[in-house]
């Protein structure tokens, strides 16, 4: 399908607002000399507030462009609870399998003796509004407007945009503490493309952002909490080797994407979210 049909002005305005907003709200982090050096490092309240504000910028940018919640996928998904369970269950299964493999490889010593499942799930539920802020922008607004490129190019492009948007905090060690900034940027791009394709596929299937919010929160909230809880001795881990953004998870996600690509077909897609204005 021709790229000429992309709403270029809308997309350009959205990207400008989302990226400028992300850099603007993180200026205090840069000014303070903040640097995340370990997965055991506890962020102060002001850091958490800044990160939360950054996560809201995609939604604010999308709503500024469309001025409509329905135009960004804020509807109940087709299939209702089944798709929401998929949004939670698939990334959770990938996470648990990747942690099991990392443990079997000896890079992630596990201690299950003090895991508070209730607390982890409560933290996950409380975090959902934060991830709604991102998903209204990426999957709610951007993905449907990139579909003239074709489903798979749109999914890949959305993942690249999502990764680049993280740059203001990635270079400060947010996702890969202890690694050089360039390594962090490259690894974030790999992760966001792979994870973004899977999350975006949920958006295409359901026509809603709610399953994508559940999936995103598993990756970015439930996963770190679970890893901290089961890490033997509470020791720091290397996110490149352990967790949803690790090499192990990349391989699992890539395998699932290949299965989806084979089932859907190279040029087709399961659904096309309507663009309401």
From TrEMBL:
<dbReference type="Pfam" id="PF02517">
    <property type="entry name" value="Rce1-like"/>
</dbReference>
<protein>
    <recommendedName>
        <fullName>CAAX prenyl protease 2/Lysostaphin resistance protein A-like domain-containing protein</fullName>
    </recommendedName>
</protein>
<keyword id="KW-1133">Transmembrane helix</keyword>
<keyword id="KW-0812">Transmembrane</keyword>
<feature type="transmembrane region" description="Helical">
    <location>
        <begin position="182"/>
        <end position="202"/>
    </location>
</feature>
<feature type="domain" description="CAAX prenyl protease 2/Lysostaphin resistance protein A-like">
    <location>
        <begin position="121"/>
        <end position="219"/>
    </location>
</feature>
<dbReference type="InterPro" id="IPR042150">
    <property type="entry name" value="MmRce1-like"/>
</dbReference>
<dbReference type="GO" id="GO:0004175">
    <property type="term" value="F:endopeptidase activity"/>
</dbReference>
<feature type="transmembrane region" description="Helical">
    <location>
        <begin position="114"/>
        <end position="134"/>
    </location>
</feature>
<dbReference type="InterPro" id="IPR003675">
    <property type="entry name" value="Rce1/LyrA-like_dom"/>
</dbReference>
<feature type="transmembrane region" description="Helical">
    <location>
        <begin position="146"/>
        <end position="167"/>
    </location>
</feature>
<feature type="transmembrane region" description="Helical">
    <location>
        <begin position="85"/>
        <end position="108"/>
    </location>
</feature>
<dbReference type="GO" id="GO:0080120">
    <property type="term" value="P:CAAX-box protein maturation"/>
</dbReference>
<keyword id="KW-0472">Membrane</keyword>
<feature type="transmembrane region" description="Helical">
    <location>
        <begin position="48"/>
        <end position="65"/>
    </location>
</feature>
């Amino acid at each position: 399908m021709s790229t000429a049909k992309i709403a270029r002005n809308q997309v350009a305005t959205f990207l400008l607002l989302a990226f400028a907003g992300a850099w603007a709200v993180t200026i205090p982090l840069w000014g303070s000399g903040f640097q995340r050096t370990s997965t055991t490092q506890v962020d102060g309240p002001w850091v958490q507030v800044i990160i939360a504000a950054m996560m809201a910028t995609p939604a604010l940018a999308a709503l500024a462009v469309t001025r409509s919640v329905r135009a960004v996928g804020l509807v109940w998904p087709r299939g209702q609870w089944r798709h929401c369970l998929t949004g939670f269950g698939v990334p959770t299964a990938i996470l648990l399998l990747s942690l099991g493999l990392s443990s079997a490889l000896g890079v992630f010593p596990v201690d299950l003796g003090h895991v508070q499942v209730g607390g982890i799930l409560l933290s996950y539920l409380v975090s959902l509004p934060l991830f709604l802020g991102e998903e209204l922008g990426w999957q709610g607004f951007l993905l449907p407007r990139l579909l003239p490129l074709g489903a798979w190019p749109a999914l890949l492009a959305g993942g690249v945009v999502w990764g680049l948007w993280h740059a203001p905090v990635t270079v400060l060690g947010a996702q890969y503490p202890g690694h050089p900034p360039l390594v962090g940027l490259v690894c974030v791009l790999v992760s966001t493309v792979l994870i973004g394709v899977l999350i975006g596929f949920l958006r295409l299937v359901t026509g809603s952002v709610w399953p994508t919010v559940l999936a995103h929160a598993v990756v970015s909230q439930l996963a770190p909490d679970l890893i901290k809880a089961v890490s033997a001795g509470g020791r720091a881990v290397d996110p490149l080797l352990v967790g949803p953004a690790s090499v192990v998870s990349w391989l699992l996600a890539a395998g699932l994407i290949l299965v989806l690509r084979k089932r859907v077909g190279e040029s087709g897609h399961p659904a096309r979210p309507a663009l309401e204005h």
